[in-house]
Amino acid sequence: MTFRKALESEVAEIWTILQYAIERRKQDGSKQWQDGYPNPDTIRHDIAKDWAYVLADEKGILAYGAVIFEADPDYATITGKWITERDYVVVHRVAAAPRAKGMGIATQLFQYIETLAKSRNIYSIKVDTNFDNMAMLRILEKLGYKYCGDVIIRDSARIAFEKCLD
């Protein structure tokens, strides 16, 4: 497997993966991603900003995530408290391909992101998810992310987590 930046030529493949994730959230009864976001323009924006990363094998992309090495303005206000106030990486828009089901691919994606963050001397990862995204909540718990409080993302409350890597 390879963890790398996504390419503009992969927008359609990434969009297919995100559509699968959007449908999964809907089937699970989650309200997350049921409002036209994310979409292909979101992916193009992620690629243009150098935020788009994939985990791929010889058959194609297994997982996608936006990995952002700059402060997220939505995280400046939290009902609660972040563990640290230092530099951090933000992870958004995590989705796994249908063929990756049962492989722990999202967990592996986060592990690669943690390694990337440490290689850039960043020792904090912050992430948010919807209160009803049970799949992501399980992953975050398993990987040792700590609940910090609530943030507002696109006019909707999200639960926020942080993991210290040192």
UniProtKB/TrEMBL annotation:
Gene3D superfamilies: 3.40.630.30
Listed InterPro entries: Acyl_CoA_acyltransferase, GNAT_dom
Top-level taxon in the UniProt lineage: Bacteria
Alphabetical list of Pfam families matching this protein: Acetyltransf_1
Domain N-acetyltransferase: 1-166
Name of protein: GNAT family N-acetyltransferase
Species, as recorded: Sphingobacterium litopenaei
